Amino acid sequence: MVKQIFFDLGLTLVHNDMSKRYQTALEQLGKDVPLAQTERAYHLANKHFMRFRQGDFNKKSASVIADYHKCVCEHLGLEPIWQNFSAQLKQMERPIWQRFDFTLDMLDELNRMGIKTGLISNWDLSCREVLEKNEILPRLNCVVVLDEVGFEKPDERIFQTALEQTGAAPEHCLYVGDNYYDDYVGAKKVGMPCLIINYRDTLGIEELTEPVVIEKACEVVDFIKANPTT
């Protein structure tokens, strides 16, 4: 029986406006690209980096960011303009992270069900500010962040730290995140079941066969109700 659920943060409890920013940057370069296409390219670039560039997300170096923008352009069929695209994005403000419409209701419902909720994230120190601004922090009994503990998913120590802080047994926990190579692999190291979020069916994760895949984090409520002994 699940007594504790740990969540990832980005694209799990909160989302950003990067797809719209990509569309705007392309418009400024004379390219009229539908938002649905920039959303798809953003999704596929994320999945590519999760699989082939593990750990690079957190480096945030100029070269990694440039490679990421090039990857986005490749998925848009606009690789020749990737440098101009990247330069255009540098002039824009940082993305804004906002909670999903379902986030607070989901966390409240899980707590009403007697299930505690926490966070295990590879974010930097801005994580707590995002949690506070989005009213998520009071609903969590545990927040374990890379830049605070020094361990990065899929290192089992970041999961073990969360287990130690909550006193929860891994077999009574569940992890929910969008990165198989960080979230599922890391959770499995400590014996914790995991659900993987993928907003477009299997798009970008066609190589995976093992995890249960859900479209958005709020589906975890129905999953628990349908699998009470999980």
Structure description:
The chain has 230 residues and is of the alpha/beta class. The protein contains 10 helices and 8 strands. The strands form 2 sheets. Strands 5-4-1-6-7-8 form a 6-stranded parallel beta sheet, sandwiched between helices. Strands 2-3 form a two-stranded antiparallel sheet. Helix 6 links the parallel strand 4 and strand 5. Helix 1 (18-28) crosses helix 2 (35-52) and helix 3 packs across helix 4. The termini are close together. The model has no long low-confidence stretch (mean pLDDT 96).
Give the helix tally. Answer: 10
Radius of gyration from the alpha-carbon trace, in angstroms:
18 Å
| Strand residues, percent | 5-15%
Oligomer status:
single chain
Number of strands: 8
Helix content: 40-55%
Shape: elongated
In short:
By secondary structure, this protein is an alpha/beta fold. It has helices at 18-28, 35-52, 62-76, 82-90, 103-112, 127-133, 146-149, 156-166, 180-189, 219-226; strands at 4-7, 14-15, 98-99, 116-121, 143-145, 173-177, 194-197, 212-214.
